[in-house]
Amino acid sequence: MSVEKVRAYLTPLALADRILEFDVSSATVELAAVAVGTEPARIAKSLTFYTKENTCLMIVTAGDQKIDNAKFKAYFGYKAKMMSAEDALATTGHAVGGVCPFANPEGVSVYLDQSLQRFDTVYPAAGSAQSAVRLNCDELFTASRAVSWIDVCKPRQD
Predict the structure, then answer these.
(1) How far apart are alpha carbons 78 and 24 in whole angstroms?
(2) Residue in 131, 141, 138, 143 with CA at minimum distance from that of residue 36
(3) For residue range 106-134, what is the model confidence (pLDDT) as tens digits?
(4) pLDDT digit string (tens) for 28-73?
(5) Helix (H, G, I), strand (E, B) or coil at 131
């Protein structure tokens, strides 16, 4: 089970006790916000993209954000192409709805979008479509082994 894999991964970081498991689905930003009891923007969604080499690039963004294709291309040097659900599962070991930046195999590069930094607490999935983990941005950066903070989302329309 993927949540158990994430729990084992987060245990040495003293973060496993932050995992939340639900009796309801948290597979979408909206469902996760209801399950957690927070605003959708605080849900840290993990988006998977193909790299030029056909490996996995993961970008974690605030739940209210969308990738800006021009910013993505300017940063990474190629056009954004989201992974299929099947490839995301095969590459990360997590099914869509539970894809998270933890306990991923070698070769999955994780980047965090700056859109998350406006919050003191965010909630990425914890490996299943009925889970989340409560973290601050520093904990998320460390636990995800992120390459860096980047700015690849569209400007917010407040």
Answers:
(1) 38
(2) 131
(3) 999 999 999 999 999 999 999 999 999 99
(4) 999 999 999 999 999 999 999 999 998 999 999 999 999 999 999 9
(5) strand
